[in-house]
Amino acid sequence: MRNAGELFEPGLxxxxxxxxxxxxxxxxxxxxxxxxxxxxxxxxxxxxxxxxTRDTAARTSLTLIPLGGxxxxxxxxxxxxxxxxxxxxxxTWLARGFGWRAPYPTGSVAASKLALPPYxxxxxxxxxxxxxxxxxxxxxxxxxxxxxxxxxVGGGLEYRLVPFGY
Amino acid sequence: xxxLIPRVISFVAAKSGSNLIGRRVRFYSPExxxxxxxxxxxxxxxxxDNSAAVExxxxxxxxxxxxxxxxxxxxxxxxxxVHYDSTVIAVFPISVFVAIDEQVDTRSVIGQVMMKLAK
Lengths: 166, 119
Known about the structure:
By secondary structure, chain A is of the alpha+beta class. Helix content of chain A is 36%, strand content 14%. In chain A, the strands form two sheets. Chain A has a three-stranded antiparallel β-sheet with strand order 2-5-4, with no helix packed on it. Chain A has a two-stranded antiparallel sheet with strand order 1-3.
């Protein structure tokens, strides 16, 4: 088993070698331009380029892999469906918060933010795990529905699980 | 940020004089107590009122539906989402509440459908 640093040994993987050459070239290029033009922006670009040199690539990889995994886990967090909690309810519209919990408390708050119709009291909320191969469209901002009462102010975000065939 | 694309489409539609009146529309993906009645309904847009806080679109149905024993030949729709109103329907399907009264209130709403222009 190799450790991460060995993956960047010269000559082991030509593609990685080439990318490290490009990174070192870019770091030197932007450093020269930052010095000659006294530009902090060019210095910033040089700083970014130094993340992918023979000295830094292993550590950069070890930093990015957990970040990427975390981003993937965050992208896979559940959607939520608010229902009356009694009859079977099917809807293609889902809500989702930034975290792993339902975005709104059940009941009046959810009914208000999602401007729900009278047949959906939002008394219950169910996590919906969307398979990776299903397409989710959104978000769209819920519009207020004055006809449903003053509470139906909207402003929540909804996503649509697009059914097959549409 | 979320509404940038539909707003651009609305702007272009307004500048080009696009008008929904007279266009044929189709309902699909219905939800709510009268969902079965609303599946695959088609009709013609005969009115549009955006003078109030929410737009109300009136659609004359191709075939009447029966709600609580009464025949209903036209329905009133209000868009469910900000910026996704009738002005973007040429590009995006929109979600609308369906009601049998132009007030589109708790007594008259019968469901929610996706609506797009019929071919």
